[in-house]
Each structure stands twice: as C-alpha cells, then as structure tokens.
Amino acid sequence: MGNQILLFLSLLALFFLQSNTSASKAAGFEASSEFSYDPCSPLGPQNWGTLNYPSWAKCTASPEGMQSPISIKPSNIYYNTHLSRLDTYYTHAPALLLNYEGHEIRVSWTQSPGHLLLHDKFFHLRQCHWHAPSEHELFGKRYPLELHMVHTTDSTSEIAVIGVLFEYGGTPDPFLDKLCEALNELKVVNSVDVGSIHPPRVGDEEGYFRYVGSLTTPPCSEPVIWTVIKKVRSVKEDQVNRLRDLLHDMDNARPTQPINGRHVNFSHPHPHGEQKEEGHASS
Ligand SMILES: *[C@@H]1O[C@H](CO)[C@@H](O)[C@H](O)[C@H]1NC(C)=O
Ligand SMILES: [Zn+2]
Predict the structure, then answer these.
(1) Which ligand is the nearest neighbour of the Cα of 82?
(2) C-alpha to C-alpha distance for 222 and 61, rounded to whole angstroms
(3) In angstroms, what is the span from residue 280 Cα to ligand 2's centroid?
C-alpha cells in the first residue's frame, strides 16, 4: 500500500515537472538551440560533450565510453541462451503528445501504462518518442524511423529503453495511426491531451538485441539497458513525414558511436509464446 502511494506521488511529481517544462518551453522553443543534430553546426553531435560541461561530458567519445546508438552487426553479436522472453505488461493510461523542445515528438504518460520486467526489477514505461531516420543501424542499414520506449525504475535511477525499427511499407503503424489527429493539432499547440492510450505493441517473436549503452540525447547518461527488437515493422511514408514536418523536416538521429569492445547479446527467438499483457485492448 505504502509503495503504491509512493509510486502515485512520484508519478504526480513527474507530471508536474513535465508540464512545467513544456509550459516554459511553449513560448518560443528557446531550448531547441541548446543542441542540434546538424553535423555542420557548432551545436552538432560532435560537440555535445563540451556544450554543457561537465553535465554533458559523457557525450564525448572516449575509449571507456558506452554510448548509443551503435551499429549492430555480425562481428559484435553474441548468441545468448540466458536471455528470456521480453516481459512487458502494458495497459491503457492517460498521456500527452508533446513536441519535446523541438527535438522529438513524444508521448508522455501521466499515469503508469505498465512496465517491463528485467533482471527481476520493474521498469515503468514513462514515455515513447521517435527518431527519423533510425539511430541504431542493423546489419549495416539505417531505417527511416525508430521508436524508443523509455522505462525507469521507481527511483528513476535505472533506465531501460526498447528500440523498434521501421521500414516503409504498405501497412501503417497502428500506434501512429491512433495519433493522427493529435499530430495535426500539434502543429498549432505544444502539447495535446490524447486521453487514455495503450503503449505500442512490441513483440520479440524474432528475438532481440541486448547491450549496455546510453541515452542518445544530452546528457547521454550511462548505463542504459538497451533492447533493440530484431523484427523491423512497417510504417507508411506519410506517417513518418507527419512526424518530420513537426520538426521542420530536420533529421533527429545521433550518429552511431564506437562499440569499444561491448557485446551485443542476441536472444533466441521464442516463436510460440504469447506476449503477456495486463488489461484489455480494444485497439
Ligand atoms: C551478455 O551475455 C553475457 C554472457 O551470458 C553476459 O555475461 C552479459 O552480462 C550479457 N550482457 C547483457 C548486456 O545482457
Ligand atoms: Zn530516443
């Protein structure tokens, strides 16, 4: 009981923290000048580490660095029989759609939509957002879109992100489809209440890649436990353009970072299991 009250209070705090941030940024996107994705800009990824020293120091490449994203390729993949199914338990919960400081489009839940169970710990889903093009490279290919689902433990001290890659195809992504109208509204306001929404469905039927990395935006915090889903999903080109338009067609992907001897573990696929879910989804 005590734990539930604590969780509620911390979520409440998170909510007010976020609404204050978005309110202060709403006026003029002034924070978007803090860093840039443009490699030709002095605020570009190559300089992130020195822009806000020492807070962003981790962003500078170093031989001990564990930065993300990375290129996932046969030379750094290790098969690992100990990796279990991806244990996600998601349900509907209220959320806001935000243009987050002009850097990314984000769905931010104001109450918990569930969690990822990892290493016997609960990582609560906080927000998800998109990068176009993809940040991770898979077998030498960069995809048009990557979804990041950001989870933290109760104390928010530990971070786990699930990454999903998308290729252009004939099938629209159902999660972006649900946000279609809200994305239109986001052209004129900085935050849209999207009501109660189920997180994107992630399946691990073709397995996933697991490695230890970082946040891909300043302060580039380490460590972050990364799970990159092997199955590439389909998204319609106009869905990606809708996201890109809101960022003035700017790419928002950090270049890949040195692997520095890290292993990327590949889970063996679990083709016959059903993904466990809490609650029921009409959508
Ligand atoms: C990858 O697998 C090895 C061997 O089982 C393990 O020691 C290591 O912790 C794993 N790394 C991750 C990030 O899961
Ligand atoms: Zn991201």
Answers:
(1) 1
(2) 13
(3) 27
Note down pLDDT in tens along the chain; length 283 residues. 455 554 454 544 444 444 444 433 333 334 434 899 999 999 999 999 999 889 999 999 899 999 999 999 999 999 887 888 999 999 999 999 999 999 999 999 999 999 999 999 999 999 999 999 999 999 999 999 999 999 999 998 999 999 999 999 999 999 999 999 999 999 999 999 999 999 999 989 899 999 999 999 999 999 999 999 999 999 999 999 999 999 999 999 999 999 999 999 999 776 554 444 333 333 3
Cβ contacts of 173 within 8 Å, gap of 6 or more? 166, 200, 233, 234, 235, 236, 239
Neighbours of ion ligand 2 (CB under 5 A): 148
State yes or no: is 124 an active-site residue: no
**C-alpha 265 – ligand 1 centre gap (Å):** 6
Structural domains in the chain, sorted by start? 2-280 (3.10.200.10)
Contact 102, 32 (CB under 8 A): yes
pTM: 0.85
Q: Is 232 in the pocket of ligand 1 (CB under 6 A)?
A: no
